[in-house]
């Protein structure tokens, strides 16, 4: 699991740690990690051309110190000082003493053009708002291909918002980001995360001083530990029975895909509720599923997956499934008929357009502020909100957030959401909480998308579904 902390938490931990260390020692730990990454990216430090972009804070101090150390190892180091009066005094002195040069304004373009590596130390966790003036112009030059060198962001790409993952204005787009102490939301949530490039975390000894993280990113081991583990004496009922209310005459395939996802998510039995013609298609593909015309008549379940491809005019069916008071997942068309607030375990799985409609805002606003809007909806409906998209974000009404790391463009295809809904509903029926069911499903679904893409180039939702069993098998091992 990797942890993400807020700027306030990081500053408090840094203060606590710095009180125990000699002056400047913490910055030197950060700089040592930064220099190691830079040296690894260069084809030899000696003779390499390094340009340091230094703002007036400690982020600029890190970059100047790193430039100094690289210069001592034989690099040609140039620095652009964005705020010369406020430049980090010790960092600047070390940079000069090591032979680093300050670039005159007129020579900035030439220096960037010749650079093998550009260190972005304009702004770090002190950033508020996007870059302005000369800093914005530098970011524009870097994006415009003014340098062929690797752009390495110090701690964060300058100008992104550390705690929200939003990009309030001009910002640097880096090839690599060397980040200190712990993760920041901007490094895992788009659109900011897209500007970070490859992440290189550097341990500066902060962990003992940091609180439990509010935002986490799960890994294979976390997901394996969360997956239901049926014992030898389990039967189909104790493994969980999931009801799927999905599909319509217009969208029968959604039912087939959602039931398929549910069958592979560990539940012992899947009950499909829907029109006879759709049920016939579902059973033709999945003879192991049981079908009935409505949630009331299909039999007992432990959780409901509602909504994929439901079409219009199904309000009564949705109300009947919700009335059971069971753990519930609501997707796609089902999101049109949400209760005022959930009182039991609930997981909503909108994409940005659906969440925008729910919240009465524009889709662009949701995409620009994914964390904010997922949190707002979680609080509004008292439900875990899994916001699908370039980075899938899960926000729980208790304040916890998870970001899924396995997303892939392979999932941007019709029907993949139906598979996810079935899979996550199955995990709910298996006893997982909405946050765990959603995170595990998103993780496995992303891996299945990658596996399917490796096999077929542009995979269909059916390919993603077919890849799921092998992904789950490799995560959890074989059943006993
Ligand atoms: N505190 C420490 O000991 C350590 C700090 N570290 C570095 O220090 C950084 C944080 O340093 P600072 O707190 O000095 O903050 P920054 O260097 O991120 O920002 C400096 C100042 O710029 C101003 N500013 C904010 N937004 C601006 C904008 N949009 N345009 C222009 N100016 C703006 C603010 O006054 C801010 O305090 C971290 O990101 C990390 O790189 C590391 O060296 C690790 C140790
Ligand atoms: K930076």
Automatic annotation (TrEMBL):
Entry's EC annotation: 4.2.1.136, 5.1.99.6
This protein's UniProt keywords: ATP-binding, Isomerase, Kinase, Lyase, Metal-binding, Multifunctional enzyme, NAD, NADP, Nucleotide-binding, Potassium, Transferase
Cofactor: Mg(2+); K(+)
Keyword Translocase listed: no
GO biological process terms on file: metabolite repair; nicotinamide nucleotide metabolic process
Residues that hold (6S)-NADPHX according to the record: 58-62, 124-130, 155, 254, 309, 351, 418
GO MF term list: ADP-dependent NAD(P)H-hydrate dehydratase activity; ATP binding; kinase activity; metal ion binding; NAD(P)HX epimerase activity
Residues that bind AMP: 388-392, 417
Domain YjeF C-terminal: 219-475
Catalytic activity: (6R)-NADPHX = (6S)-NADPHX; (6S)-NADHX + ADP = AMP + phosphate + NADH + H(+); (6S)-NADPHX + ADP = AMP + phosphate + NADPH + H(+); (6R)-NADHX = (6S)-NADHX
Family: In the N-terminal section; belongs to the NnrE/AIBP family. Belongs to the NnrD/CARKD family.
Self-association and partners: Homotetramer.
Protein name stated in the entry: Bifunctional NAD(P)H-hydrate repair enzyme
Organism per entry: Jiangella alba
Gene: nnrD
């Amino acid at each position: 699991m990797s942890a993400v902390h807020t700027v306030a938490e990081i500053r408090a931990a840094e203060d606590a740690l710095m009180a125990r260390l000699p002056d400047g020692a913490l910055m030197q730990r950060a700089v040592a990690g930064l220099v190691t990454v830079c040296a690894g990216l260069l084809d030899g430090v000696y003779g390499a051309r390094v340009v340091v972009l230094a703002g007036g804070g400690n982020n600029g101090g890190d970059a100047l110190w790193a430039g100094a150390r690289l210069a001592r190892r034989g690099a040609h180091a140039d620095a652009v000082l964005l705020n010369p009066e406020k430049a980090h005094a010790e960092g600047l002195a070390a940079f000069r003493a090591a032979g680093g040069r300050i670039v005159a304004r007129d020579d900035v373009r030439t220096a960037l053009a010749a650079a093998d590596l550009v260190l972005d130390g304009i702004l770090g966790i002190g950033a508020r708002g996007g870059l302005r003036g000369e800093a914005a112009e530098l970011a524009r030059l870097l994006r415009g291909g003014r340098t062929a060198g690797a752009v390495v962001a110090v701690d964060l790409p300058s100008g992104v918002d550390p705690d929200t993952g939003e990009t309030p204005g001009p910002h640097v787009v880096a090839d690599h980001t060397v980040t200190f102490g712990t993760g920041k939301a901007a490094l895992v949530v788009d659109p900011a995360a897209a500007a970070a490039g490859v992440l290189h975390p550097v341990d500066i000894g902060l962990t003992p001083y940091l609180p439990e993280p509010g935002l986490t990113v799960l890994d294979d081991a976390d997901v394996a530990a969360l997956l239901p583990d049926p014992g030898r004496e389990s039967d189909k009922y104790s493994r969980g029975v999931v009801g799927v209310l999905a599909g319509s005459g217009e969208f029968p395939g959604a039912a087939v895909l959602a039931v398929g996802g549910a069958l592979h998510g560990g539940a012992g039995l899947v009950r499909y509720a829907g029109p006879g013609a759709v049920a016939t298609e579902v059973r033709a593909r999945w003879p192991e599923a049981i079908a009935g015309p409505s949630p009331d008549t299909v039999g007992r379940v432990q959780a409901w997956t509602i909504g994929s491809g439901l079409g219009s005019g199904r309000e009564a069916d949705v109300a009947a499934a919700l009335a059971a008071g069971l753990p519930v997942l609501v997707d796609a068309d089902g999101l049109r008929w949400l209760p005022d607030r959930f009182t039991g375990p609930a997981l909503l799985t909108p994409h940005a357009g659906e969440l925008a409609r729910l919240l009465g805002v524009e889709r662009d606003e949701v995409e620009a502020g994914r964390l904010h809007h997922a949190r707002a909806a979680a609080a509004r409906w008292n439900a875990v909100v899994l916001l699908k998209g370039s980075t899938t974000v899960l926000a729980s009404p208790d304040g916890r957030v998870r970001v899924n790391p396995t997303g892939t463009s392979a999932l941007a295809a019709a029907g993949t959401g139906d598979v996810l809904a079935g899979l996550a509903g199955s995990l709910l029926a298996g006893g997982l909480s909405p946050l765990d069911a959603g995170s595990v499903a998103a993780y496995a679904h992303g891996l299945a998308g990658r596996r399917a893409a490796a096999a077929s180039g542009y995979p269909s939702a059916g390919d993603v579904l077919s890849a799921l069993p092998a992904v789950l098998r490799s995560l959890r091992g074989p059943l006993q």
